[in-house]
Amino acid sequence: MKKVLFxxxxxxxxxxxxxxxxxxxxxxxxxxxxxxxxYKLQEKYILVMVTNQDGLGxxxxxxxxxxxxxxxxxxxxxxxxxxxxxxxxDEHFPHENHPNRKPGxxxxxxxxxxxxxxxxxxxxxxxxxxxDTALAKNLGxxxxxxxxxxxxxxxxxxxxxxxxxxxxSDDWDEVASFLDTANRSAQIFRQTNETAISVExxxxxxxxxxxxxxxxxxxxxxxxxxKHSGIDLSVEVKGDLYIDEHHTIEDTALVLGEAFxxxxxxxxxxxxxxxxxLTMDECLANVAxxxxxxxxxxWKAEYHREKVGGMPTEMFHHFFKSFSDTAKCNxxxxxxxxxxxxxxxxxxxxxxxxxxxxxxREGKNWEIPSTKGVI
Length: 375
Known about the structure:
By secondary structure, this protein is α/β, with parallel strands linked by helices.
C-alpha cells in the first residue's frame, strides 16, 4: 500500500507573502531546506500537492498571474528530481464552503475510495494552516503543522486538533527526520549476474510473510523471522541454484540487511539493543544484537550435518554475517543442542525476537539512542 504526503503549496513548499497571493515571479521563493528534503522523502512516500487558491480565475486572481509562477516552481522541483504524482488546486473562496476546498475532501476521493492502494492511516498532510491538519483528520491521516512549536501546539489545542497533529515544526530538516522515522518501510531490488532479489519490509507490521527463494528450508526460516519479530516481509529471489545455493542465500542476506538499514532510518526512538534466549526441545539459542551502525559478528555454533532441508549448514553463519554487514549491526549468536533442525530454527526465532525488542519504539519524544547524537 502506498503512503502519501499531501503537501500544501503556499507557506509550505514556497514562502507566502503578506498579501497571500503569489501572482508574480518576483514573489516566488522556496521555503528553506524544502527541496533537499522533498527529494529524499519521495523514496518512501508519494508526493501530492493540495492547495487552496482563493478566487483563481476571477478578477480577484486572474489565471494569467498565477500560472507563470506556479509553472516556474514546478520546473524547479522537477529539475531537482522531485516528482509530484498529482496536483489538486481548489479555486473557491472561503465563504462558498465548497467541498473541494480544504479541509473538505472533495478533491481527495481517489485516495479515500481506494483503501487497498493508499495507506491513509500512515499518510500525512503537511501545511502551515490548521485547515491542513483538519484535512488530515477528515482523511483519517495525520497532520504535520508547519509552525513554531510552542505557538503551533497552543493553536492546535485551541482548535481541538492536538490528537490529529503528529508533529509541529517550521524546520524542514526536522519534519523530514520525523517522517523518515515515522515510515519504517523499505523496498529494495538488487540484480546481479547471479541473483535477482526483491525485498519488501514493513517494520511496524503484523508478522505477515511471503517467501520465494527457491530453497524450501530457507523460506521456512525467513517465515520464522517475520512471524516472531512482528514485521511484514516479502522476499522473492531468482538465483543460480543450478550452480549451488551460495549466491542465493548470501545475496538475500545482503539485501535484507540493507532493507533494515533503510527502514530504520536515523533510528530515532528505537531501543537499539535486543536480546533473546530461546529453547526448542533440547536446544538453547542466545542472540544479542545492536543496531549500532557498525557491523560485527560473533558466532558460536557447530553443525554435524552437511545440509538441513537442502540448505548447506555452512551457509547459516554466512547468512548472519552478510546481514550484519549491510544492516550495520553487532550480532552475537550462540547455540547448543543435538538436533540440527532445532538448532537452526531456534536461532532464527531467537534472532527474530531480538529484532522485535531492538526496533521497538515507545512514546512520541523519539531521540537518537546514543550519547553521540547519531548512529
